[in-house]
Amino acid sequence: MTTEALSVLQPYCENDMQLLKRISRSIFMRFNEPLAKADYDDFYSIANMTLWQAYNSYNPNMGISFEGFLKSCLQKKFKTELTHRHRQKRILNQFAVSLDAINDSEEKCSLLDFIPSDFDTFEEVTKRQECYQYQDKIQQYISRLSNQQVSILNLLIDGYKPNEIRLILEISPKEYADNLQTMRSYENIKILF
């Protein structure tokens, strides 16, 4: 490395890169982006690489000091990195799906219909039932349901799958999902507990 290169780069590399870190922090403050400690480390690494790239690209005839050129390069690199990180978050959010959202297929079922679960509200209630203390609550719950919902409940208790229940009762997937949502609503099941 030449003496000229050392004289330009030395202030940025002294004292554990304090000058480069201070310039980087001042740029972070202007972006108003909350950064975690790990993010600071990532951006300091980017700053270190940018320092060497800026030195190799800098021409004194540009009419700007090396520090001004370096700050400009750092701002562009940091802004590009932040944009990339936000884009990655948006891409991930596109794939987020609610478990109770009805799909667009012919069956129009929610993901909850296909996720196996050992939890059964009615089974839990009957486990806790001692000397028929919950029998009245179960009757109250069932009395709130429509005839179709009671039929769905009975078929579910008997172990039928959602598509089998829809075929037996001759109801549409949306109608089944709406009934199930009503049956599972807090307003209806709160009396069981």
Précis, in short:
Helix content is 68%, strand content 0%. It is built from 9 helices and no strands. It has helices at residues 3-31, 37-57, 66-94, 121-128, 135-144, 147-157, 162-169, 173-184, 186-189.
How much strand? under 5%
Helix percentage:
55-70%
Cα distance, first to last residue?
Answer: 77 Å
What's the mean pLDDT score?
A: 78
Low-confidence stretches: none
Order of helices and strands: HHHHHHHHH
Main sheet overview? none
What does this structure look like?
The longest helix is centred in the N-terminal third of the chain and has 29 residues, at 3-31. 68% of the residues lie in helices and 0% in strands. The chain has helices at residues 3-31, 37-57, 66-94, 121-128, 135-144, 147-157, 162-169, 173-184, 186-189. The chain has 193 residues and is mainly α.
Quickly list its features.
9 helices, 0% strand, mainly alpha, 193 residues, rod-shaped
Strand-helix topology:
Blueprint: H1 3-31, H2 37-57, H3 66-94, H4 121-128, H5 135-144, H6 147-157, H7 162-169, H8 173-184, H9 186-189
Helix pairs in contact: 1-2, 1-3, 2-3, 6-8
